[in-house]
Every structure is written in C-alpha cells, then in structure tokens.
Amino acid sequence: MNTYQKNYKVQKRIVTRKNGEKVLLRSMETSDKSKLAEFLSKLSDKTRYFYQLDDYGDKSAEHLCSSLSNPEKKHFIIENNAKDIIALVKFSLDLPEKDRVRFAAYGIELKPGETSRCGTCVADAYQSSGIGSITLEQVINSSIELNQSIVMLSGGTVTENKKAVNTVQKFSFEIVGKYIDSYAQERLDMLYIIKE
Fold first, then answer.
1. Domains in the chain, start-ordered, CATH in brackets?
2. Angle between helices 33-41 and 58-66 (to 10 degrees)
3. Most C-beta atoms within 10 A of its C-beta, which of 22, 107, 179, 193?
4. Could you tell me which residues come within 8 angstroms of residue 158 by beta carbon, excluding any fewer than 6 positions away?
5. Most confident listed range (36-40, 112-116, 130-134)
6. What are the tens digits of pLDDT across the range 54-67?
C-alpha cells in the first residue's frame, strides 16, 4: 500500500438525489459513532435482513468507527440536510482469505492490493431514491483513484434483494457465483472489472 492509498479519504462533496435534494457525501470519521449507532438502530427488520450485522447500535458503530485506524478501511457516509446519516458504505482495500478462497472456487483470482470491497446500507426512507447509485458511483471512482482493478461486493448481495441486485447490475457488476452465508441466506457474489 503506497502513501497515497494510506492517506486517501473520499472527497467531501454535495450530491443531488433524484428528487433534487442535496445531500453530503463524505468520509466516515471516528466522531460519527453516535450518529452511526442511531442510523443503525432505526433500520427496519427488512433492511436488517438484507444488511446483516451482529448488533444494530453502539457495538457495531464502535467497531466500524474504530476500524478506521486501519489504513485499508475507507468507509464513507451520506448525510441529509439535518446531518442525519442516510447511507453507510463500508469501503475497504483489504481482502480476507475467505473471500479469496470463495472466488477461487469460481475460477477467479482476487489479488490483494488490486481488489476493493464495498457494502452499502441505505436508510429505509431513502431506499429507491438514487442513493445506492450515488454510493456505487463513488466506490467505482475511488477504486479507480486507488489503482484497484476489481471491485467486489463485500459478502455478496442477498439473492432476494432484487432492488440491490438490479442497481449493481446497472453499474455493470456481474454475478460470478453464489453461496449460503452464516445466516442461511443465499448470496450472489458480484464483481465490477475496472477497464484500463
């Protein structure tokens, strides 16, 4: 990992939703812990089913914020005008061995230092409003800036989550395999190949 990659932060910027509302996209900071816990606590059962965590409050918020001390973690958020978090994107340059092994079974070699991972969660009131597309656009752009050649969906996407599957496919993510996760959910592994 070079110095640029170590110090990289998602550039703070205003983006416009489909309905014209302006929202702020920025890197997550350790000081976001309480706002993140509030965001997670308000997720509906349906959203929690698709975005699995061990806890939807302080414990997960603490874990996510403290993970930022690892230079491979580049998480970012989107805030509305009230400064409430409306989307969380876990964005990372690390590549767990279990992911490498799972993709190798599909005949795909994921290389550390060349593969970024992302996982997005959008607040219920903001789903189907263009926020997912905004986050994917940022993930792809950041991956290009960071010299990654592949973007993978971290943990895949729950097969039943048709909206999420359709959104990522609009961005040319391809389904490369499927597996059953530890919650007994079928998940689709999807990749985006960055063209040179």
1. 3-193 (3.40.630.30)
2. 140
3. 179
4. 49, 50, 164, 185, 186, 187, 188
5. 36-40
6. 899 999 999 999 99
